[in-house]
Amino acid sequence: MFKNFVYNKIFKLISLLLILVIMLIFPISTRYELSDNNNKEIKKTKVFLLNNNDYISEVNISLDYNSYETKIKKIIELLVIDGIYADLIPNKYKAVFPSETKLLDIEIKNDTIILNFNDNFLGSSFNDLENNIKLLVHNCLIDNKYNKVYIEVESKLLTNYNNISFYQPFTRDMLINVINKTTDYKNIVKTKVFFYSKTNDIVPVTILSNQNKKKINVIIDELSNSNYNDLYSYMNYNVELIDYKIQDDVMSLFFDDKIYDNKNNRVILKPVYNLLETSIINNFPIKNIKIYVNNKEIKKSSTKNVE
Fold this sequence. Notes:
This protein is α+β, with helices and mostly antiparallel strands and 307 residues long. It folds into 2 domains: 43-165, no CATH class; 178-302, no CATH class. The protein is 24% helix and 28% strand. The protein is built from 5 helices and 16 strands. The chain has a 4-stranded mixed beta sheet with strand order 4-5-6-7, covered by helices on one side. Helix 3 (126-140) links the parallel strand 5 and strand 6 (148-153). Helix 4 (215-225) packs antiparallel against helix 5 (270-281). The longest helix is centred in the first third of the chain and has 24 residues, at 2-25. The radius of gyration is 29 Å and the shape is globular.
């Protein structure tokens, strides 16, 4: 009987040791579960950032948020130098707000966004502050259902800084990446033309002109004939727009064959099509474009990437 008792004890001890060995070889921690944070949807979000050439550009970054208010808060944090989201800023882009800038409060009412910052928000030269405000406003108004932004500093509306006046509310009418081609102050026309940066992000440029050109001609001339540092359109030089017409929210454009990447293969580059489409939609009340060469439609699906 005593022997049986001893054997049972030994058997139990060996069993426990075996279980411990198995647990060490195949630990329980190898069973992975997604935490609540990992269950959040990470979205590719369009934001405006300043690149190293001081152009405000459209950039897609991964940002998780569950409301528009949260989205704005995170974008503001992204724009603060050495902020908590500094690692999300792509190469060749930079944060702009002084490092101690804090958003004290945000209020969203109807189509209006009210932002209240601490006084570190003003820790820039006037030119930098003006550009920083433009960057902030365009980020807040990415969603078209919002149209106005008010900026407060320590709960007081920002009306002047270093004897320079600010007129609020701020709207999309704040011009970014301005290239002034005016010869005087009469009949100034604003045309928004889109280019690619070196990193293939989109850069919206505001062309100011007063040469009695139609906006569509300004767009084509800028994309085909301009030579700006670090801005690219991939369109051939001296492309000619023969005619255009608008019908049912669609603009049809009729080009000569210079718009082809190569006259032999007779295709249009995808970046050329994209920049044309984006530029035109941002200047005219249309939703789509159609491109024709020798009266033959060149569909977007038949375009090719830059090699």
